[in-house]
Amino acid sequence: MTLDNLGTWLEIDLSVLKNNFQVLSDLTGKQVMPIVKANAYGHGLERVAEAFAEAGAEWFGVARIEEALLLRESGIEANILVLGYSPPSRVSHAIKENISLAVYDQTVAEAFAGEAAHLKEEVRLHAKIETGMGRLGIPHAEALPFIEFVSEQKFLKLEGIFTHFACADEPDKAVTREQIERFNQVLGEVRNRGIDPGIIHASNSAGALNFPEARYDLIRGGIALYGHPPTAGMALPKGIQPALYWKTRLISIKELPAGHGVSYGHRYHTTQRQNVGVIAAGYGDGLRRVDGNDVLIRGKRIPIIGTVCMDQCMVDLADLPDAEIGDEVVIIGAQNDAEISATDTAQRWGTINYEVLCGLAARMPRHYTINMKNYAD
Ligand SMILES: *Cc1c(COP(=O)(O)O)cnc(C)c1O
């Protein structure tokens, strides 16, 4: 793929991803399970997983079994854990492709056991304990009988026990400390019963960075591996960098007279005789249809004006008289000394960087590089 062929695209530096994996592994001293759900946070599932595998990842985490099967199809041989819901009818796929499933409910566990018994083969399971997130998991007070049940079933293999934090990225640490305490209590009960809990894991990126005592055997690393902070204010370890750039081009420049309407609904009018540019990205690519978006052109922050269209939007070139058609435009990333991070964009959109990344449309070509470019040095 040559970039000259493209209107808008993502550039993803695989060496940055590998470096982030190394930094998080070294810092925590634990195995890091890259979480590659939602198309690897928009970065592209297959190539990203391959890069993390090359960097030494022995586990991958996904949300759905469809994602796990795509990983197997693309040749990933490492362990894969489906963190979310798996319909019992998928147990056969999990067994066939050697995929581990989360189990968080007695009814589901019984259905899994029935499916596996029917096939006379073991399915690998991680029992999820609800310690305070209020989402999936067997309530911590009921965990012991549940884990006993799973460990006693002939065709269920209890491979691990895990929980998930609700507030690991919040300044107030009380909730997470309580979750850790409840989780440790469950682990103690399980061991007292003589049951091997297997692989223990609890921490997402924020948990791993803010609660060293909650690193256990494995870190479930998502946002930090892609180089972004779990919350806007949180500092990342030195060396971790964003791997993704979102770029487009200036595809038209026109001088419009003062008072000329721009884009659908004419919600913007030129205030003077003014150069207006068009860039080749819109809400169909994941650019949110809100006011106040900026892009970088020639190292300068340039405002998007008028309504964002599906495939294009307009920019005010009043401060950029030397702009030319074909100029590279950065929507997320750095250009010269300027930078718009996914976190900046999220704040402008009233959301979090996770949602910005997951919203990068599938239609945009992903171009992979291995330059270890310094993003914002
Ligand atoms: C998505 C997810 C993660 C990764 O979270 P980050 O904040 O991106 O590090 C970890 N664990 C579970 C259960 C998840 O669903």
CATH class of the largest domain: Alpha Beta
Secondary-structure arrangement, i.e. CATH architecture of the largest domain: Alpha-Beta Barrel
- How far from one another are the termini? 28 Å
The strand count comes to 20
How many separate helices? 12
Ligand types: pyridoxal-5'-phosphate
Mean pLDDT: 96
Oligomer: single chain
The helix-and-strand class reads alpha/beta
Describe the sheet with the most strands.
Answer: 7 strands, parallel
Structure, briefly:
This protein has 377 residues and is an alpha/beta fold.
What does this structure look like?
The chain is of the alpha/beta class and 377 residues long. It folds into 2 domains: 14-226, TIM Barrel; 244-351, Lyase, Ornithine Decarboxylase, Chain A, domain 1 (Beta Barrel). The chain contains 12 helices and 20 strands. The chain has helices at residues 14-28, 37-41, 45-55, 65-73, 91-96, 106-119, 143-152, 174-192, 205-210, 223-226, 342-349, 353-358; strands spanning 8-13, 31-34, 59-62, 79-82, 100-103, 123-130, 138-139, 156-162, 199-201, 218-221, 244-256, 261-262, 268-269, 274-279, 294-297, 300-305, 313-316, 328-335, 338-340, 366-369. The strands form 4 sheets. Strands 3, 4, 5, 6, 7, 8 and 9 form a 7-stranded parallel beta sheet that branches. A 6-stranded antiparallel β-barrel has the order 11-14-17-16-15-18. A two-stranded parallel sheet has the order 2-10. Helix 1 (14-28) packs across helix 3. The chain binds pyridoxal-5'-phosphate. The site of pyridoxal-5'-phosphate has 13 residues, from helix 9, strand 10 and helix 10.
